[in-house]
Amino acid sequence: MAELPLENLTVPTSNSTAEEVVNTFAAEVKGKNVLVTGTSLGGLGFETSRAIARYANMVIITGHNDERLKLSETAIKKDNPTAKIYPLLIDLTSLASVRKAAEEVNKLAEPIHVLINNAAVGLIPFKLTSDGLELHWSTNHVGPFLFTNLIMPKILASASPTYTPRVVFVSSVAHANPGDPVNLDALTNPDPTKYSPPVAYRDTKAANILTALELFKRAKGKVNTYSLHPGLIYTNAFEKDGTLPIFQGAGVLDENGKPILSKSIPWKSIGQGAATTVTAAFDPSLNDKPGAYLEDCQVANDKVAPHASDPETARKLWDVTEKLVGESFAF
Q1: Within a domain: residue 194?
Q2: pLDDT one-digit tens code per residue, 70-86
Q3: 55, 163, 195, 234: which is the annotated catalytic residue?
Q4: Is 293 a catalytic residue?
């Protein structure tokens, strides 16, 4: 186990990296068991896991591809040879896979102090999962919703008189894009003739914030929840089908698919992007701010769009999702 840093530590800012934030909150990270979804090399989840592994007791990394999951584990251990890494296979597009993964987690001896719902897809063509769900909704909301609730006993087991477990949802500033309220009909009755990739992404990222708020409400103080925008980061997500033209049209990627660098486009490195996630997971100043939304490692509740903070929408989304997965959850 690495020694806790002794240097003077500073409050995380928009330029902080995940590694710097982990060093700042090393005392909070030390001894914790953390589960991070979506940890492929080159992504935010991997960088989050790599940084946390320096001090955490155990980091559970997840993915739907065994080979890629092993690559991430090897890379993290190369950087942190003493790190305890537990690879977990989970396909968020399959409710059966989610249930199987949750069952595996619940059999572990260790409790889960922090769950980071990081995995997501974005701006992809219409596609239904084996469960009949639209892929955005399944990966970004329904899968994480079910997984979070199924492993809640393991999360609650980490609570103590001095510690409240945390659940973090990686959302996006895209949740605030203008448009109608969150379309729950697209969740329950997916229709390719009414489908729009940007709208689907917007609504599922709003769903992340709404779920965080409703989870905190229903847990009645037993769990602290947070959501966040990591920033504009060039990751392997930009290479997926259908994504490139949308971002080129938005003027953030050039004709070759590379980031357009300008003062008006605040690109972040992957390390800087993962910093806000780590802040949400460990910053002790957030203990009295449950349900907060973060940007640039700071609370930014004023930047949450009305459709993503409406209590009635949050309640309806939770109830509809419970019906979809065929299970109700109580705390």
Answers
A1: yes
A2: 999 999 999 999 999 99
A3: 195
A4: no
